[in-house]
Design a protein that fits this description.
Blueprint: E1 5-14, E2 17-27, E3 32-36, H1 43-50, E4 58-63, E5 66-67, E6 78-81, H2 93-103, H3 109-122, H4 138-151, E7 156-160, H5 168-183, E8 188-191, H6 195-198, E9 204-209, E10 212-217, H7 219-224, H8 229-239
Parallel strand pairs: 3-8, 3-9, 6-7, 7-8
Antiparallel strand pairs: 1-2, 1-4, 4-5, 9-10
Helix pairs in contact: 2-3, 2-4, 3-4, 4-5
Length: 243
């Protein structure tokens, strides 16, 4: 079975500063891969390149065996969930999910709304369908964003620090949903500092440092038995709240 996502020797620079320095990463179907590392290590840049939100200078990106040569090729195939939710404030919760299905996927409006309601039930927000984003908590907004990304039936869900702006209780709501998706076999890629949360669902963890993946393995190998000095320093900083 070919990987869902394959990153080969990807490089990316901003104003002469190399942010990604030959990154290689493979995500298989059903994987939940967590990308960790200090601020500025290139985590968000990597996931944005994979999602087609940033161009790469060199290297290759493959989606299900096909090289991505145009960022538009990833539209609808990689569902992106941002830390800032990015909901439409003038649409109801249901419309935030249904409208993209109608406009982008040309779905029948009735079918789109039915799918939106089913997804809201999945993320335990059925009762908020007619509400507007301004009335929701941060955790609820993020769960709506997850439902909206799922609505497009993506090959992979990509999360960029989905709980960084949330307090612990609301972050727990979001990670409970992500945990359920992982249990269902949803392929996911997640950038986060919430190491305790990812230990419950991540099939693999990749440690990014200075634009390179220095360590990759399962949660036990990376989070509990690290043998890389940079990784040990990072884990200690997280433990003491320095990140």
């Amino acid at each position: 079975m070919e990987p869902v996502i394959e990153v080969r020797n990807v490089k990316k620079s901003f104003e002469g500063k190399e942010v990604l320095d030959g990154v290689n990463l493979t995500v298989e179907k059903g994987d939940a891969v967590a990308i960790i590392g200090s601020s500025g290590s290139g985590k968000s840049t990597l996931i944005r390149c994979i999602a087609g939100l940033e161009d790469i200078q060199s290297g290759q990106l493959f989606l299900k065996g096909k090289e991505i040569r145009d960022k538009n090729e990833t539209v609808g195939k990689i569902g992106m969930v941002f830390q800032s939710f990015n909901l439409f404030p003038h649409y109801s919760v249901e419309d935030n999910i249904a409208r993209p299905l109608i406009t982008v996927k040309k779905m029948n409006p009735e079918d789109a709304r039915k799918k939106a309601r089913n997804l809201l039930e999945k993320v335990r927000l059925s009762e908020e369908a007619s509400q507007y984003p301004s009335t929701l908590s941060g955790g609820q907004k993020q769960r709506v964003a997850i439902a909206r990304a799922l609505a497009m039936d993506p090959e992979i869900l990509a999360f960029d620090e989905p709980t960084s702006s949330l307090d612990p209780e609301l972050a727990h709501e979001v990670f409970s949903t992500i945990n359920e998706l992982a249990a269902e076999g949803q392929t996911m890629l997640i950038v986060t500092h919430q190491l305790n949360a990812i230990s419950h669902f991540a099939t693999r963890v990749a440690f990014l440092n200075d634009g390179k993946i220095e360590v990759e393995g399962n949660c036990d190998e990376v989070l509990r038995r690290p043998d890389n000095g940079n990784l040990k320093s990072f884990l200690k900083m997280v433990e003491f709240g320095a990140i």
